[in-house]
Every structure is written in structure tokens, then in C-alpha cells.
Amino acid sequence: MAKDEEDDLLPDKDAAKGFYAKYEPKEILGRGISSTVRRCIEKETGKEFAAKIIDLGAIEAGDSNHMLEATRQEIQILRQVMGHKYIIELQDVFESDAFIFLVFELCRQGELFDYLTSVVTLSEKKSRYIMRQIFEGVDYIHSKNIVHRDLKPENILLDDCLNVKITDFGFARKLKEGEKLFDLCGTPGYLAPETLKCNMFEDAPGYSKEVDIWACGVIMFTLLVGCPPFWHRKQMVMLRNIMEGKYSFTSPEWADISEDPKDLIRKCLVVDPSKRITVTEALKHPFFNTVLFEQDIGPLKRSLSAKSRRLSRIADLALNVTEKKSHLLRRQAAEANKQSANNSDSVNSSPSSSFSACRHHLCSCFSNILARYSHLRKQSQFNARKKFQFAILCIRAMVRIKRLRYTPEPLRAEDALRDPYRIKVLRKVIDGCAFRVYGHWVKKGEGQNRAALFENTPRCEVYNLYINSLNR
């Protein structure tokens, strides 16, 4: 878009004097049907924020009143949940006859949806890191008797450190004690069965906070394998799958995923809300208490490699000393044999004298090694961190031995040629190609079109490239 066209989208300064007096709007970060999100700078401090500008004039008269009321309700809820590190912070609010300005903290990494689109799938480590934060944020929201009702990757922002910020409280509601909700709202792929029942049956019992747990399970499933659990091209089939809780872990992406995340997903996606896991129980699940050492301990590997280099220097020192001493022993043994040939009286005593000399030099050799090593040990004082790292290394070895039974069997060449998608590395390449080829299909919202990419993956082309590379 040209710069002049962007300037035209800015509200008139006379209609938003309060906002322009405090903030300077910059480039557009995102667009909605009736709103625009811009980066803005606070003039007094120079800090950067994100300003959501809602144009009430672009909405019909009847709808504008409804939008104004809904926005005020969202502002009220945002102020109730302020202060939590995993919930978006509302900085300022400005309201005029034609515009509403909501100023939020700026999350540079954008939506979790966009991040997931760029990486296709997330590892267990990153999924655990993100899902723990989402559950903690939802736990805080529920502690205020508020239900979000529209949790999905598009409504979760990320900062530079992959810390989440739950946003978009447009459908959120404050609940009274024992209150149930009956209106249908949200995104179809993330709707809980009890929400759908409210639109199907007049005697539906309604729903409450449990719908957010269901949405968390759908998000977790999507992070691990790249597509929602219930998605189908035909929306009625998708809704039927949701009502029946029909999903599976049989796709190739699940082959390398452990049992703990699957168990947590099962407990989140229970059709009966009374039997569904709570947020508190989810945070205590073994999935969040498990450390996958081969993925989680990067700094430890670097520190241990440095320690290994130091020990290797000691080993090289010992080897050099041993080689010098062994050369000296061989030369002295040769001289002793020459003397024994000239002096027959010393024949009986030469073996013992050679043995004594060998023992003497070996003792001297190891004494020198120990002396030098002890000298190095005196230079380094007790380091609690290194002791802890050594203990972690031992635990890591034990966990690896324990997890041997989960290690998949090697894939045969025949199976790889017949179905290259089963190979994890190649599967990432295939899915990445799908996003590059069909990226224009990706749309946010009700269609769940992101999952359609996996049904249109150009596997034939990649398959031929794979076969040609094997032939070469």
C-alpha cells in the first residue's frame, strides 16, 4: 500500500486530540473489518505500543451501538485481568464520536498463528513452554470468574522470547456464581461440544469455563502436528467430529511424540465437561514436569563440552608423559640385554633388575601425572554449578536408558522409497513446500484453511526429487 493511502486511513487529528497529544502513530501492523492496528510511540518516553483504532463510522448505525457497547465491555474485562505476565496489557483508552483507540503493549513476534505457519510444527519442548504459559494465563482469567470463549492461535501474541500474551477478549464474559452461558460464539474448529449443543437443543444445559480447557487442548494438538484435531473440508462433518470427540494420533507426525502430551490432550478433549481436566490439574500434569534432556539442556551441553576439552588436555598430558617414559624404558631394557649378553653372571638377576627398573619408571610416570593433575585441581576451587551439571549428566544418561524402549525402529529403505513422508526430516521439507506453494490459501478465522494445506501437499514433486537424489 502506498504511503499516501496509509495516511488517509489515519483518523483526523481533530477527532482524536487526546490520542495524538500523547502518541505518534506509525506503520500498520494489522487490519480487521472495522479496525486497524498501528505501531505507535509515546511522545514523552519514546516507548513503543500497539494502537487498535476502531472506526465506528465505517459500521452501520445499529451495529455501531452494539460495537461500542461490546468494546466497552471488553475494556472493562481487560482492566480486570491486567497485571498478569501472560495477558495483554491495556495501556490507554481514548474514545471519540467516530473512533475508539485501545493502546496495548507491543508484541513484535505477532500472532502464534503466524509463528506456527512459519515453522509448520513445534517440538515438545517449545509446545510445553508455550502451553504452560497459556494454561497459567487461563488460570488467572478463570480466577476472576471470566471465561474467554475464543482461545485460538490467532488470539495469542508472542514477544521476542516466545512469551505468550492472551488477547482479544471480545467474547469474554464475567460469570456469576453457578452461571451458565448459552449463546454461540467463537471459531468452529475450537468450539467445545457443550457450546454446539446450545445451538442444537433447546434444553441444553449451557456451558462455563470448561470451554477454554477444550480450546487449550485443540491449540496444543495444533502446535504439535500443525493442524487442528477435528478439521474437515465439510463443516458439518467437522462439527460432528467435535460432538463425538473424534480425533486420532495416527498421523506420521505423532510417531516421534511421547505419551505425556497425548495424555494431556485426551484429558482436555473430553466431551463431558464435568469429566474434563481443570486448569489447575493441567498445570500439575506430568507433561509439564518432564524434562526431555536431548532437547531442553542446550547450555549444559556447551558447558560440558568445555569441561570435556579441559579433561582432554589432561589426558593428552598423561599420554605425552607415558610415551616419553615408555621410550626411556625401551632404551634402558635394550642396554640391559646388551650387558647380560656380555656378563653371564648377571643372567639370573637381569629379569628382576629389569622388572624393578620398569616398576620404578612406571611409578615415576604416574606420580608425575598425579602431581600435574593435582596442581590443576588446586587452581580450581569447588564449583557447585559444575557439580550440579555433572549430576544432571548422570540423570540424563539414566533417562536415556529408560527411554530406549520408546526409540523407533530404523526405517527400511523400501519403506522410505514407498512413503518418504514417514521420514521426519523429509516430512518437514514436504510441509514447508506446501506452505510456500499454497500459502495464499491461509486465511484466519472460521474456515480453518490452514489445515487444508496438509491435504494439498505437493508430495509427488518432492517424492520425485527424493528418488532422484537417492539415484545420484
UniProtKB/TrEMBL annotation:
Subunit structure and binding partners: Hexadecamer of 4 heterotetramers, each composed of alpha, beta, gamma, and delta subunits. Alpha (PHKA1 or PHKA2) and beta (PHKB) are regulatory subunits, gamma (PHKG1 or PHKG2) is the catalytic subunit, and delta is calmodulin.
UniProt family annotation: Belongs to the protein kinase superfamily.
The protein, known as: phosphorylase kinase
PROSITE patterns: PROTEIN_KINASE_ATP, PROTEIN_KINASE_DOM, PROTEIN_KINASE_ST
Gene3D superfamilies assigned to the protein according to its UniProt record, in alphabetical order: Phosphorylase Kinase, domain 1, Transferase(Phosphotransferase) domain 1
CDD domains: STKc_PhKG (cd14093)
InterPro entries: Kinase-like_dom_sf (IPR011009), Phosph_kin_gamma (IPR002291), Prot_kinase_dom (IPR000719), Protein_kinase_ATP_BS (IPR017441), Ser/Thr_kinase_AS (IPR008271)
Residue span(s) of domain Protein kinase: 23-288
Domain of life the protein comes from: Eukaryota
Binding site for ATP: K52
UniProt-recorded Gene Ontology molecular function terms: ATP binding; calmodulin binding; phosphorylase kinase activity
One of the record's GO cellular component terms: phosphorylase kinase complex
Assigned EC number: 2.7.11.19
Assigned keywords, A-Z: ATP-binding, Calmodulin-binding, Carbohydrate metabolism, Glycogen metabolism, Kinase, Nucleotide-binding, Serine/threonine-protein kinase, Transferase
UniProt-listed SUPFAM superfamilies: Protein kinase-like (PK-like)
